[in-house]
Amino acid sequence: MKNSVVQPASPPTHWPILLIEDESSVMAYVRTALERHGYLVVCCASAVEGVHLLETGQFTGIVSDMRTPGGLDGSDVHAWVAQYRPELASRIVFITGDIANEETVSTLRETGAPCVEKPFRVRQFIDVIEKTMGKAQ
Fold first, then answer.
1. Burial (CB count <10 Å: 0-12, 13-18, 19+), residue 53
2. Could you give all domains of the chain from N- to C-terminal order, each with its CATH number?
3. Which of 22, 63, 70, 131 is the least crowded, having the fewest Cβ atoms under 10 Å away?
4. What pLDDT does residue 104 have?
5. CA-based max dimension of the chain
6. How confident is the model at residue 7 (pLDDT cuts 50, 70, 90)?
7. pLDDT reported for residue 92
8. Residues 6 or more apart from 83 whose CB is under 8 A from it?
9. Exposure of 4 by Cβ count < 10 A (0-12 exposed, 13-18 middle, 19+ buried)?
10. Among 84, 83, 22, 15, which residue's Cα sits nearest to residue 47?
């Protein structure tokens, strides 16, 4: 009888969450909340920069403000992801302080992506992240 060596399972890949937020105080708050709950985070201040990072990087999911400077917004990020990175399309969470804006409402209806309204509590935000992206490993 031969002895077989059982190889341990490879550890799961742990990619960061891409955070797209132009307000530095909100970025710091969200980044801290995610990191304290075990997530890795890569931050950028515009949707344009976020799309550039998505072109080459691997991410667990995306947290994006609906409104960012530079000509692209959260809706544009979702559209780009749906076309070029469809595996991430169901792993987008929007954050916004402008939930009453008709354009925002329309985007949320069209995408089906969850949205957390600013200001929000950490627990509320993390609950949405865990439901959308899974718990941090």
1. middle
2. 17-132 (3.40.50.2300)
3. 131
4. 79
5. 71
6. very low
7. 96
8. none
9. exposed
10. 22
